[in-house]
Amino acid sequence: MGLLQGASELFPVSSLGHAVLVPSLLHWSFKQSDPSFVPFLVLLHLGTATALLVLYRQQWVALVRGFFTAAIAGRIRNDSERLAMLLLVGTIPAAILGVFLESRIKSLFASPYVAAGFLIVNGLLMLGFELLRRRTERGASRTEQEAHFASAERISFRAAAIVGACQALAFIPGISRSGVTIGGGLIAGLRHQEAARFSFLLATPVILGAGLVEVPGLLTSGVPIGEYVAAAILSGIAAYASARFLLRYFRSGRLDPYGWYCIAAGLVGLALLHFNP
Amino acid sequence: MTRSRSVAVALGVVGVVFIIVAALYALGVLQIATSSSSGPHYKHAILFAVLAVASFVAANFARPKPAL
Q1: How does the average pLDDT of chain A come out, rounded?
Q2: Residues with Cβ < 8 Å from A68, sequence gap 6 or more?
Q3: pTM of the entire structure?
């Protein structure tokens, strides 16, 4: 489960959708209504967030420094300061929607059938993002096509807020946080690799914050911490490897394969749930 | 961002309001839009603390400054 969550959290294929669908299909013994399930997921997310912090450690140092210098000076003077403020603007809508709506949305949609259905929707979204992107591309080779688009620091503040708010869609099992934020970044005019970088940077404070606020409850819940920490470490290793792979892949790769995968996984999931409930 | 003293003051006031709301959630006094109806709500408190910081940052950005 740790490996599955860590790998699927950053791939644009919905970790929550897989976390709902796969255990149900494989008849794994744990129940999502079990009181220990939430602490378990919290630790897995902390593993993912730690992996992202390690991957972008130098950038985060620059971003934290940039945030304080820009906040104190009241003006933006370099790319690190601009990116820090973009991440703040992008994080706020997701944090507001997360705190007030997350549990309600998750309880409304926490069914394997719904997860499989929204996995298909997620796939269609990925293909839609790429379709819109192709209309604005120029050049023959992928390198030429990508060269016309911008780096993460150049996204507008309005676009950052919209991309950030899109993260809330990921509370629906089957809709991928990285998928909608990478797609949003593409629509906002970022290169694929830069859209992925912005998505990962944007995800880090949300995942880390959501995890850290649950830690006190975890320590008093009497769950097998040792096993859960081992799963979190596996999740972190899988997330780190996934992020490295995706950043390399998106130098020239597109969202289409993940879109087709989500559609296929959703259809197969629906069929298996129907014929083998 | 439009630089204006009145906008900066308004954002500063909003920041103070957010701090008060954060404190009320942390103390368990405020129970609006929470999953349980008793006890402190740290998640809400942290959110409003972050919103307060963002408001103060925005206020500082909106404050008129001498040209460099």
Answers
A1: 86
A2: none
A3: 0.87
